[in-house]
Amino acid sequence: MNQDVLDLARLQFALTAGGHFLFVALTLGLVTIVAALQTRATISGKPQDARMVRFWGQLYVINYAVGIVTGLVMEFQFGMAWSGLTHEAGNILGASLAVETIVAFFVESTFLGLWIFGWHRLNRWAHLAAIWIVALTAYVSAYWILVSNGFLNHPVGYSSENGELVLDDPVAVLTNPSALLAFGHVLAGALLTAGFFMAGVSAYHLFRRSPEWDFFGRSLRIGVFVSAPALMAAAVFGGIQFATLTTFQPMKSAVFSGKAAEIARLQAELSAEFGPGDYVPSEAWTRGGGLVMLIGFALMMYLCFAGVILACFKTVVFRFRFWHLVLMAAVPLPYLAMIGGWVFRESGRQPWVVYGLLKTEDAVSDLSPGTMRLSLTVFTTVFALLALLNAWLLARHARRGPVESGLGHDERPGRDDQKPDGSGRGDGSGEGHGPKPNGSDQGDGPPPSDPADALPAPRY
Amino acid sequence: METLAIALLAFFAAGWFVLAGADIGTGMLTPWLGRGDRERRLVLASFAPFFLGNEVWLVATAGVLVGCFPALEGELLSGQAPVLVALLTGWIVRDTGLWSRGRGPGPRWRAGCDAAVTSGSWTVALSWGWLLAALLTGRPDAPATGVTAVLTALAVAALFAAHGLGFATLRLTGLPYERARKLVGRAGRPWQSFALTGVLLGGLPLGAGTTLPLAEKAASPATLALLVPALLVVTPLLVAVQAWTWHAFRHRVTRPSYL
């Protein structure tokens, strides 16, 4: 085992898994809201409801695409950089990853394709069923991934044969508290991320006094009313997980609380049990991650508490511009808390990759440092570019507001804005076609290149 | 159980080559089939509803590999790490190009995305050739080198392109169709060429799989006894859903799609 390769492989896993996790957080939360919005739109048949599905669905799809491609790297990375893990624990870990890809992800992708491209082609109830299947399989996917992760954090239901772990009690693996509690925590966190995102984007438009005040007023309220209970659920699942740490991973909780005597005692205990070695995880990462998460939680709690009250008053929703600014600034908060909690969970269990069974340094593949460096450089660059692209496209489409082009645009002849092909096909060419609550005041001039430019300038 | 697990692996791998081979091949030929912005968008629309469902066959292949043959998965993937870096990068670039094409501003953005789709598709096809060169020569623990690797990569990429061309003649209309038809030639019917390349592509992973020590490196019986039946039950449902997708979008494309 080469120390360089180990460090590089850990860095690569941390950056790629962390990056992927952040995209997934928004995807998982937003798909739930989009499915709920589409249910309402399908039942009510109102154009405004359908526009909300398309606008938020568009942002969801942009984010989902980046989530998929970053997930591809995750899928192959276990075997590429951590072959010791699949070798030792593959009988359990591999099975849950296999079920995730086939039972969840395969179905999810197939139905997402149907949903995106089947707009105006499928029966509207079949189309609604498609998004619900996408949402449910996304949850199933998260569950199976957390079964794998739960096993790494708290191995159960296995027995050891010839130095290899074999599956002994599948029910114990599937109901591992470390997996179930994390699943609840992540789902709540995802909804929280989506709620803050929705409220922030809506606040931007209300701050700019968008003519779409009705659209974004309703969206802002949905965002606020989703994030408050989601925050509570995340806190409850997080609190229970924290309590289980004292039995599952006492060292993590000792390092987080900074109890030097307890750390020394556990270090001596673990050395006696597993042989000499350093069993204390990095204090900076473990405590730092935990603190970022808790500070994020505290800030979000104030915002959610105030938000739920403020959102009950219509005038406040439309006019309280300071609140709009705060909501816009708060969009990164759930991301920070999510990533902090994840760093806490994963770095706090070091030096173990499978807690108490396999050390991280024994799991890394026998790669040359050159190969590992190449892989790290390539994937980190690609992920950084993807994150920038995602942020830019999300901002672009969020800023533009609901337009008639893009997702769910009816491409059938005679139904759409068939224009002589100019420069802007599918690029804002739908300006002025949608129902506008305030009427359009743009006259017959040439359509602006970006509909967002046509909004009234902000007044400070 | 090992035999069934091998059959599942073969099924998903061959499925990826036949199905995704078509959209990767068409992606490789996009600049030749579609000459302008609008035409290229039509070419992409020919496989737009399917590419998401196609690419998961490879994800599922990797899933079966890690679930039923975990130790082999680790050895194979770490041995072929440089090839996989290339494969994954090509895959990511291609998908990003596809998803972003219609979302950014202006014709230059779209031309850039088209370039990403084409170069990404070529990278995926060439990387597969590189990977297959190592597998077919029976040396799965290190990337293939030398003339064999280059020739296999080029041959496999050509096969992908031919498969994509056959797919394009079955799906497209208008000028892009005419161009594809001209390249296929008038000798046979379009579906014959597509079926031939499909059989060849589907045979590639099967041939490569015979060189791998699959039966010896299978997961423990306890895992296989649960995993394999579960996957066998689900697989027909997955195939049925995908067949429904192909049925729903069976008509030739005449106008652009979401991408």
Write down how many β-strands of chain A occur, each being a DSSP E stretch of 2 or more residues: 4
Q: What portion of residues of chain B belong to β-strands? A: under 5%
Specify which chain pair forms the largest interface: A-B, 81 and 69 residues
Number of separate helices of chain A:
15
Segments of chain A where pLDDT lies below 50 for 5+ residues? 416-460
Q: Using only CA atoms, what is the Rg of chain A? A: 24 Å
Profile the largest sheet of chain B. none
Overall number of strands of chain B? 0
Q: Into which percentage range does the β-strand content of chain A fall? A: under 5%
- Total of DSSP H or I helical runs spanning 4+ residues of chain B: 9
Radius of gyration based on Cα positions of chain B: 19 Å
Write the layout of secondary structure elements.
The complex is a heterodimer of chains A (460) and B (259).
Chain A: H1 3-44, H2 47-81, H3 83-117, H4 124-153, E1 158-161, E2 164-167, H5 170-174, H6 177-207, H7 213-248, H8 250-257, H9 260-274, H10 283-310, H11 314-319, H12 321-329, H13 332-347, E3 352-354, E4 358-359, H14 360-363, H15 369-400
Antiparallel strand pairs in A: 1-2, 3-4
Helix pairs in contact in A: 1-2, 1-4, 1-6, 1-13, 1-15, 2-3, 2-15, 3-4, 4-6, 6-7, 6-12, 6-13, 7-8, 7-10, 8-9, 8-10, 10-13
Chain B: H1 2-33, H2 37-68, H3 70-79, H4 81-100, H5 106-136, H6 146-171, H7 174-184, H8 190-210, H9 221-248
Helix pairs in contact in B: 1-2, 1-5, 1-6, 1-8, 1-9, 2-3, 2-9, 4-5, 5-6, 6-7, 6-8
Explained architecture:
- The complex is a heterodimer of chains A (460) and B (259).
- Chain A is mainly alpha-helical.
- Helices cover 72% and strands 3% of the residues of chain A.
- In chain A, helix 6 (177-207) packs antiparallel against helix 13.
- The termini of chain A are far apart.
- Mean pLDDT of chain A is 82; it is low at 416-460.
- Chain B has 9 helices and no strands.
- Chain B is 81% helix and 0% strand.
- The model of chain B has no long low-confidence stretch (mean pLDDT 87).
- Classes of the chains: A mainly alpha (460), B mainly alpha (259).
- Chains A and B meet through helix 2, helix 3, strand 2 and helix 15 of A and helix 2, helix 3, helix 4 and helix 9 of B.
